[in-house]
Protein: NRPS condensation-like uncharacterized protein
Organism: Intestinimonas butyriciproducens
Amino acid sequence: MPREKRQKPVWYKLDNAAMMYSAIQKENYSAIYRFSAVMTELVDPEALQRAIDKTLPRFPGFRVRIKRGAFWYYFEPNGAPGPFVKEDMKNPCQPVRFGEDDGWLIRFFYYGHRISLEVFHALADGAGSLTLLRTLLAVYLRELGHDIPNTDGVLDIDEPPPREEQEDAYFRYAKSRVRKGMGDRRAYQGNGTPEPFYTLNVTMGLVPLDKLRETAHGYGASVTEYLAAVLIEAILAKQRREGRRRELPVALAVPINLRPHFPSKTLRNFILTVRPSIDPELGDYTFPEIVAQVHHHMRLHISRQEMQAVITRNVMLQKNRLLQIVPAPLKNLAMAVSYKIAGCHPYSTTFTNPGAFQVPAVMEPHIQRMEVILGQSYTPRANCASLSFGNTMEITFAGTVKESEVERDFFRHLVREGIHVKVISNREE
């Protein structure tokens, strides 16, 4: 009798961003982010669980666990039961622990009208996770008896996932040569008083998108550029109040979705970061000057040529033969140190705006608004994120610091500009 061929084990390499997130994930840093849909009706947890069970097979890149090999982390399919939907908690985006919860790197929660998805950033960026959430919401509404089409970004769960959705797009667009870049200056960190472990203070502001867009355009800026400028102004004010002898630059890490610039259907990570900044040592800046500075920096550095050079530099580091044979524990330590120097010190905080959440028209009446939360930063500071649905832009500050003056100054600025802000927070004071 002919011997049966053994099936090769299925495993996936981590992309460039995933390698970093896997190496730096620890108890005081959460590479977890959350997207939530606030529905018009109370959530049916049983229907939601059925929807999760039907949707996830269409997204194999999210049905994985992480394993540590001799030299690199890698993903392998997770055949464990779940993930199971849970009632929500006060402190979201808890750090992931690779050996817990049957190895699941995604989480689903519900509370009242809210459905939440939490994702370990090594799996996917915001664009990929929003595709999963959009499809899940469509399947959930079908479980409730609604007819929802597979259009406007809702994927067909009965179709096999194409290979392109799992491609490492960084590798695809890396060139053979790259110009070596100079490192960025250390930025003002603005660290506050740490809260007890793990206390994530979340403050959300709901603003009308049409008024926000009108105000931004009045400065000749996009919504992202305008909000980034408001955030920089608020952090500059905080630094000024501290009376530092020498003020440091205030700089933001602003993730950019690369798919519009480098065509790809990947649902994995495919982002780079740009760094708009203001150096107060050069003098005082009016707010219109800050907006102009941010606008021109973003337009200058979001170029195909420059971004491809950065992609190439990162991938070439990953391909380095000496680095490849370094044992995983030493490699992770080196990457953690590198992240602190190059990924943390040059930035005052992170601001991300994935943009508008689009769904088929028949789904729109079932959703009130969308929300986004970034997990605990590497240092005790608040990160900022925004997401819009319909005419509502939701802006979130989330961090493990007691102080809240940055978010207060931020929202007060919007109010002074005539933009109505409704504030929601889990803070107790």
In short: The CA atoms of residues 31 and 121 lie 6 Å apart. The chain has a mean pLDDT of 90. The chain has two domains: 12-156, 201-425. The first helix runs from residue 16 to 24.
